[in-house]
Amino acid sequence: MRMKGFVLACLLASVTQCVQASTDEEMWQALQKAAVAAHALSYQGIFVCQSGQQSKSVQIRHFFDGQNEFSHNVLLDGSPREVLSQGGDVVIYNQKNEKIVIEKRRGQNMFPAVLPTNLDLVKASYTVRAGETERVAGRDANIYFLEPIDNLRYSYRFWIDSEYGLILKSVMFNNRNEMMDSLSFNQLALVNNVALDWFKPRIDSRKSYVMEDEVPAKADNNASPHWTLKELPTGYRKVDQMIRMVHGKSLPVTHVVFSDGLASVSLFIEPVVNGVKPRTGHSVVGNTSFYSSVAGYLQITVLGEVPEETVAQIANAVVFIK
User: Fold this and answer.
1) What is the pLDDT of residue 322?
2) Cβ contact 263:154 at 8 Å
């Protein structure tokens, strides 16, 4: 009898493990569908960005014709700002004083496309579980939690449209379970419009437009002749690198982007300016952690909406080469 009970217990444990594995796989598939839906559906609406005490509304128009993807975001509050993207190319029109600065970027995870289409990095750093169903923007949404496996990243909660799979709401929580950032549709509609007359910036003839120069770094160039990277924080990898001429600086700045699939961290490397005291140490502004240090004659600055330990590890991964 004891043997039969033992066998039965083993069978029940195996079934439970199989059911759990199946459930986990189904949840990851739901997140995978959400990652694809953000790019493959055509939609328009308004979503609200909440960060600390600040709240801003953004109008979005997104269109996919089966081959090409177009998106146009317009900030509706505060200083005018527009973001146009086609595929992986992003152009930002940002008003600064009496000028409009045009910034070119490459693929960013802009809401609702906050999940990468390849979830391997995310699966390595987060666990997933499902929550209840709630209404967002008048639509039913299933809630999914992504919780970090360590203290190098924060947790996320996604409300995913139960019919179309699109993310309707995304919230990030710090390690004290306090809400840091929230993005949520309050208006959303799927569209079939093929006209692209909306895919252009609103030009203000009274202002001058200035292009911010950016030179992509070579794909096989891990660093410069004067610096290299040693071990990065667990789960993070380099996803982009560029050399940028920044207004107000006489020398180019190297910008390196790291990600774990969800969290994004920026590293800036520039020569120390003679007569200017280098910046060192930690700081936190709003939800963003900063860490500054010096390597040789290079000023290192790392920032991101991640724990302080993460930005410190990335800054300390920069090794100066004489």
Assistant:
1) 76
2) yes
